[in-house]
């Protein structure tokens, strides 16, 4: 499967700007980790891009619709990773891809939430600030902190290093992601 085919699938089921941005951020982080670990960057980025593709259109069936579609297209490894990207679903984590997707999904969304409440957005965002916000249960309350911890543990990464890596990846794309510093009128 090509990235364009994956993008077409995503856009056929998702119109929400925030979900499309989440898909793109997880795609970027997964691609960067694949490059760092000498894994298949296309496969990893597509898993990131499509992990929530069916969430808006089929919330009660998520992730089964995208899982079945990918299986039909012969993309079993990506399909499995997507079916297992939340530990409470009880799926096995067989590959590094499976573990990476769990590790990157929730925390990437959380880091974007941290950036969105800052006038400087991603610019200058520090790991310690994200760690502090993780401790505030009322901030981005829908983010499952237990899932964030389990993901890093399964993937075998130090939480601080993981957050730092993700921030760095997202900063490289902050303009595209509309997470550049806000411009204010002076005077």
TrEMBL record:
Domain (HD) spans: 20-103
| Top-level taxon in the UniProt lineage | Bacteria
This chain belongs to the protein called HD domain-containing protein
